[in-house]
Structures are given as C-alpha cells and as structure tokens.
Specification:
It is a single chain. 33% of the residues lie in helices and 24% in strands. The protein is of the alpha/beta class and 330 residues long. The chain has one domain: Peroxisomal Thiolase, Chain A, domain 1 (3-Layer(aba) Sandwich), CATH 3.40.47.10. The strands form four sheets. It has a five-stranded mixed beta sheet with strand order 1-7-6-4-5, with helices on both faces. The chain binds oxa(dethia)-CoA (UT7). The site of oxa(dethia)-CoA has 20 residues, from α2, α6, α8 and β12.
C-alpha cells in the first residue's frame, strides 16, 4: 500500500498589503523589499478571521476535489505556528469541527515552515502501516498576529493563508509519495523564535512591553543556513532515489525569499518553467506556503496526474524537509 496526494486546496485572504503600504509604517522601500526578497505583496486575514477559519476553507476545497465524503476521512493534522489558541484546543480540532469531521483523531504539529512536509512524512507512515486510509493535512497561518509591525526586518516578509491536501491509500505506485526527508537542529533555535507566551516567558505585561510575543529573526544568518541546508537536502533526496533533476516535472520550494529559491534552483539547474513562484504575491506563509503553491500550480493547469514533484522547505527550529511525490489527483 502506498500513500498518494489525491487533492489540494487553498484559501487566500482578501486583503492585500503591498510594499507601498509598508513604506508608510516602517523605514523601507518597495525597491529594497523586491530586490532582497522578491515579495511585492502579501495577504492579511481579517481581524475576526482565525487560522482555523482559513484552514477549514482550504480543507473544504481539498475534500471536495478528492471526491471523498468527509465521513471517509480518518485523521486530521494541522501544521501551524499561529494556532487559534496557544495550548488547547488544537487548531486541527477546530478545523475538524468547522468542516464537520467527527470522532476522528485530530492534532497539531509544530515544525514552523517545514510543517507541511513533516506532515507528509507522517501521513505516508500512517497509510503505509495500514493505520489510516484518508488523511486531511492542513497548513494554515495567521502570521500577522505574530508580527511586530515596527520591525522592518521581519514584518515585510510574512503573509496569511491556508493550504490543505488529502492523502489517501493507493496500490498505484505511479501516484505515490516516493520519499520524504525531514530533519532538525535545535542549536539554531534562537535565530528564528517567538520568545514570549510560552513557559520560558509566560504572558505578562512586562513580557509584552518587551514585545517578546512577536517573531524575532536574525535574517541574514537564517538565510545562509537555509541556502546551505536546502541545496544539500534536495541533492541528497534526488540521489537517494536515483532521480535526475531533469525527471522532475514541478519544483515546489518553500516561499520565503526569491533569492533562496533561486540558489537551490540554480544548483540543480531547474528551468524556471518547472518551478513554482508564489512568494511575490503571498510572501512567506510558513506552513501554508507549500500547499498554497501546489494549489496555484494545480489551478493554473501545471500539475497533472502522475507528475513528479520535488518539495523543499526550511524554518524555525531549525527544521527542514524535502519530498519527492507523484501527484495522484485529477
Ligand atoms: O521561512 C523561514 C525561513 N526564513 C527565511 O528564510 C528568511 C531568511 N532571511 C531573509 O530572507 C533575508 O535575510 C532578509 C530578507 C530578512 C534580509 O535580507 P538581507 O539581504 O539578509 O539583509 P540584512 O539582514 O543583511 O540587512 C541589510 C541591511 C541592514 O542595514 P545595515 O545594517 O546594512 O545598515 C538592515 O537594517 O538592510 C536593512 N534592512 C532593511 N532596509 C530596508 C533590513 N530590513 C529592511 C527593510 N527595508 N525592510
């Protein structure tokens, strides 16, 4: 038995925040942001819209495209760094409720931007072991709730949104998830961190005065480790599986910075036409970035059943992951 990505869906919030909007609130310029990141605009969720609201909308689309009835889904996992509630209930429980999936296991994982590919590894294992048959994966983020809009080094990077996929059991190897590599190194934890609101710095006025509830990033150091790690990781997963870059139909990298994507693309000599770029319009949507990008490629008609995709991702922790899979949808 293999695991197959059968369908994809996404939810894109309506409100657009452009680089020009940032020029009005921090010392920056459209030119700097485009040159250093490739980002022109990003989406921001409405004040009354939660991560689970967006996740549920993406999930409904993925379920509808899978042709499954929601009663056939036997596991729901959500990856997010901006859960509706810090401790409980999990965002996966809230999404299940909003979608109408009852009485099945549901939980969140914490792997920052690598969350979606981490979940693919878990879904593959659950299905290949025979424990589950149809799994709903959701990457959803309201990162605007964690961003310090006075910190120009981080606020221009992030956006909100959600992506979802259905992973189902199949006997057809031509639509299978072939391999997933996932790894982490906690020695870099301080370089990309939300220091506050956890057990180290519990919620307090003092903690909030220091703005510890927001994302802090040593951008340039993160950048260097991301490029080094991702270029090695994609080379490794291709080599392990005896697959040449030219055999990959679609390269779907994590959308954090155009320069990181280009470094990996150039290393493997992937043509631009085979690469998905959404960072320019969505910014970095963390765990939602990869499923949102796959969804865009699907809706643009760039993804057909059996196409070989290569995914790569890198995020806080540090965590990183890559995956090789054939699309199982129609
Ligand atoms: O998804 C999780 C993983 N995250 C990432 O992969 C993000 C990785 N990092 C990056 O994408 C980049 O490091 C940034 C886009 C965050 C920054 O680009 P950089 O080329 O690494 O710039 P830098 O941090 O080295 O800063 C260069 C200069 C600094 O000024 P000085 O010290 O040279 O005077 C910054 O203060 O650019 C300044 N700067 C800005 N200037 C205008 C930083 N942010 C801005 C800004 N507008 N928004």
């Amino acid at each position: 038995m293999y695991a197959s990505l059968k369908s994809i869906g996404s939810y894109i919030p309506e409100k657009i925040m452009t680089n020009r909007d940032f020029e009005k609130i921090v010392e920056t310029s459209d030119e700097w942001i485009v040159q250093r990141t490739g980002i022109s605009e990003r989406r921001i969720a409405a004040a009354d819209q939660s991560t689970s609201d967006m996740g549920a909308k993406a999930a409904q689309k993925a379920i509808q495209r899978s042709g499954l009835d929601k009663s056939e889904i036997d596991l729901v996992i959500c990856a997010t760094l901006s859960p509706d509630h810090l401790c409980m209930p999990s965002t996966a429980c809230l999404i299940s409720d909003k979608v109408g999936i009852r009485d099945v296991m549901a939980f969140d994982i914490s792997a920052a931007c690598s969350g979606f590919v981490y979940m693919l590894m878990m879904a593959k294992s659950f299905i290949e072991s025979g424990a589950k048959k149809n799994i709903l994966l959701v990457g959803a983020e309201k990162i605007s709730s964690l961003v310090d809009y006075t910190d120009r080094g981080t606020c221009i990077l992030f956006g909100d949104g959600a992506g979802a996929a259905i992973i189902s059991a199949t006997e057809d190897i031509d639509e299978a998830i072939i391999d997933v590599h996932a790894s982490a190194d906690g020695k870099y934890s301080d370089l990309l961190i939300t220091p506050g609101c956890g057990s180290t710095h519990p919620c307090s006025t003092e903690m909030m005065d220091k703005k510890l509830q927001y994302i802090k990033m040593a951008g340039n150091e993160v950048f260097k480790v991301a490029v080094r790690t991702l270029t090695k990781d994609v080379v490794d997963i291709l080599k392990t599986n005896n697959i040449e870059p030219k055999d990959v139909d679609l390269f779907v990298p994590h959308q954090a910075n155009l320069r990181i994507i280009e470094a990996v693309r150039n290393k493997l000599n992937f043509p631009k036409e085979k690469t998905v770029f959404t960072v320019g319009k969505y910014g970095n949507t963390s765990a939602a970035s990869i499923p949102m990008a796959i969804n865009d490629a699907y809706e643009e008609g760039r993804l057909k059943k059996g196409d070989l995709m290569l995914l790569d991702t890198f995020g806080g922790g540090f965590t990183w992951a890559s995956a090789l899979l054939r699309f199982g949808g129609n």
